[in-house]
Amino acid sequence: MTPMFMTIDLGRMAYAPACELQSDYLNKVLARREEPSPDLNAAGTSHDTSGAPRHFGYLLLVEHDPPVITITRRPAAASHLLTLPDMLKREGIELAQTDRGGDITYHGPGQLVAYPILDLNLLKLRLHDYMRLLESAVMDTCESFGVTARRDACATGVWVGSGAIDTNGAEGASDAKICAMGVRVRRWISMHGLALNVTTNLDHFKHIVPCGLAGRRVTSLQEQLGEQCPSMQLVKHRLLVCLDDRLRQHVAQAADPHLSMTTALDSGGAPTRT
Q: Which CATH class is domain 6-255?
């Protein structure tokens, strides 16, 4: 079966060069648009003029090292940095501006960052549905390891917890975020993506208000599973399989709108991209 995307494992890499690579691969996807447009089929593949299967883009996998706090251009984002830059530097944590959506977040070793560089136009995938698809792929990944994960009605990302209302009436206040998301779309090609905490040093989140969501905790697969936490390599493999499956389901549905999909995406609300 032809993969929906080509996977490039970057290992550990600083934030800036990884962003440059995203741009390089985005340009590769743009160049492919000059070729005759393929037709999607219900098997989740398309073909070039020679009849050979072609993919819809790339998936870059990386752990950012040195650790970095990234801040978007959103007006309030900088105010969610709680530690002076000089103090961060002493801890070996960098600061970087980013052009993705969302607010402020942390990346570091033990966190699986996935940058899907996908042609959303070719996939016939709207931005809202793309975000829900990413969430579904991460939830599938977490649940494959025995961690029940869910969406939040008010904030994009993947959460662990019951979503119960606390004594102050705040829905989901006891939940913890296990995966943050923030994307950018250029000419309907996606950039940036998601950050799934596997064995991340959660203490480093004390330097920020994660994603600008005051009072919301973060967690990791390691915190949830203890000694049963899977290796980073296994999580990488499981995520790319789950993402491939979700994309394949979407393409099949796009090719045949009447197809009954027992695992169809939840249309849900329209949470902010964080």
A: alpha beta
Q: How many whole angstroms separate alpha carbon 164 and alpha carbon 172? A: 5
Q: Of 212, 230, 239, 197, whose CA–CA distance to 64 is shortest?
A: 197
Q: Which residues of 216-244 are buried (b: 16+ CB within 10 A; e: fewer)?
A: bbbbbbbbbeeeebbebeebbebbbebbb
pLDDT digits (tens, 9 = 90+) for 53-96: 468 999 999 999 999 999 999 888 999 999 999 999 999 999 99
Domain spans of the chain, in order of start: 6-255
CA distance 48 to 77: 43
The amino acid at 118: L
pLDDT tens digits along 1-21: 788 999 999 999 999 999 999
More confidently predicted of 130 and 102: 130
- Residues with catalytic function: 211
274, 211 Cβ separation under 8 angstroms: yes
